[in-house]
Amino acid sequence: MHATLPLLVRSDFPPLRRGIIDTLQVNLGYRCNQSCLHCHVNAGPNRTEEMSADTIKTVVDFLAASPELRTLDLTGGAPELNRHFRSLVVAARSRGVRVIDRCNLTILEEPGQEGLAEFLAAHGVEVVASMPCYLEDNVDRQRGKGTFDSSIRGLQRLNALGYAQAGSGLSLNLVYNPQGASLPPPQEALEADYKRHLAEHFGVVFDQLFTLANMPIQRFGSTLVSKGQFNSYMQLLRSAHREENLAQVMCRSLVSVDWQGYLYDCDFNQQLGLPIQDLLHAGKARVHLSDITAAQLEDQPIRVAGHCFGCTAGQGSSCGGALVEDGKAA
What we know:
Helix content: 25-40%
Distance between the termini: 36 Å
CATH architecture: Alpha-Beta Barrel
Structural class: alpha/beta
Largest sheet: 8 strands, mixed
Shape: globular
Number of helices: 11
Strand content: 5-15%
CATH topology: TIM Barrel
């Protein structure tokens, strides 16, 4: 695995400061039932990192102490593989916190995950599902043979439970990543293609499509280095940078938590080992969730490096998809 941090730290990306935090993004562990090429976490079946019950309790306590946090965004790996996933969902929802599950869809068919789809629906969990293309060959090439068929079955199952159905209140969004070293196409047009194809061929409906740029870190970054494409991809991101995207990048209203409970400005910084810069705890190399509240993190500087151009290039890229569409704020 090629390390990309040394290639990214020297950067002229514009300085940023955090605003009011409304989202806590929690990585519950790096274990996953898949090993996708574009994965910026380098997740896979052999990873053993998993958030403990004690740290889960710290997350719940942090939510209770930070009423401005209205969204809990659960990610991994496959977050559902954490043995405490369901208890955390129940605790957050009982406090009226919106919960997002970043689901790879195939997890719904994994042994031991029986009833997962029904659990998500029963607790009103929003599902953001990885679906890198609406064509079978492209999906299986990126995520493994049989992944597409399993993903379609997962979507059909969620639809049957009410997801993306009018009046159900159950949100189902899909996520697109490019196949290689290119920027995502315009989100609005691609969403229309997805909706048409999936409805016509599989009877599948969903709410929105989020287009995300591939980050030049971890597995994808290492692949770029191996192919001699790292510098050209970075130049692509830099040349497509748009200043108007800076106001909406996710790190300004989100803080990321790793499986041990340490804080980062975003999931990408987490994977690069770049913890938050917290002026209140300047003597600490890393700040733990138990050391601070969300309000204390406001107006703090955000650590930036070359990979940040992946969030501001073209239409922009965030956990909620494109930041602008056709030159307008999304």
